[in-house]
Amino acid sequence: MACCCLPVGGAxxxxxxxxxxxxxxxxxMTQLEFHYGGKDDLTSKExxxxxxxxxxxxxxxxxxxxxxxxxxILHSAVRGLIVISGTSxxxxxxxxxxxxxxxxxxxxxxxxxxxxxxGDFEQLLLEMTATSPKTxxxxxxxxxxxxxRVRISKLDGDTLGLNLITLSNGLVFIDAVIPGGxxxxxNKTSDRKVKILDYLVEVxxxxxxxxxxxxxxxxxxxxxxxxxxxHPD
Length: 233
Known about the structure:
Blueprint: E1 12-16, E2 30-34, H1 42-45, E3 53-63, E4 71-76, E5 81-87, H2 92-99, E6 110-114, H3 121-129, E7 136-143, E8 146-154, E9 162-166, E10 172-177, H4 182-189, E11 199-203, H5 210-219, E12 222-230
Antiparallel strand pairs: 1-4, 2-3, 3-7, 4-5, 6-7, 8-12, 9-10, 10-11, 11-12
């Protein structure tokens, strides 16, 4: 197992889980629904753009002897959270995505079970990083994030107050919210809080080069809208 060399704060440790495998066999996929907090309408009551978090049971894939899952993940001990940031080329889960385009593992997905085992993130990490001298079958349960819109106004001298993780694939995740910044002030006055490991997908209605848009925000003043994919606590 190799560790990614990414500049992150103490709350998050990135992992790169490669695998050497020739074939991943597609199998069943069961789609479930999970209504966050038992509420029917998050848009009106919580301010999120989605009404529910979707839970997917994925797999089963074949892991060759000595192989690993082939997932890139980020995890936070503070939140007890593991999220997917990508798949390693040629890995079982990359092949799963190729053969199941409607049920792909996506960036920001939260891992809630591996091989039907649930628990805290340390137990899940052990399960995800385990190897075996024998061929084994592996399945996962993940939860899709919901989108959260954050609106802030920036004047001269204001700072956003965000530490970001910018990955080699261009994705941007939240590493920390800095006390005293605009995002921290937003968190103190809104139920739609920005959290560690939120996945930034849009700035001012533009998606794509999010890291460049955030850098532009740091240098300019005005009204800004951020869209993040998050997992409500």
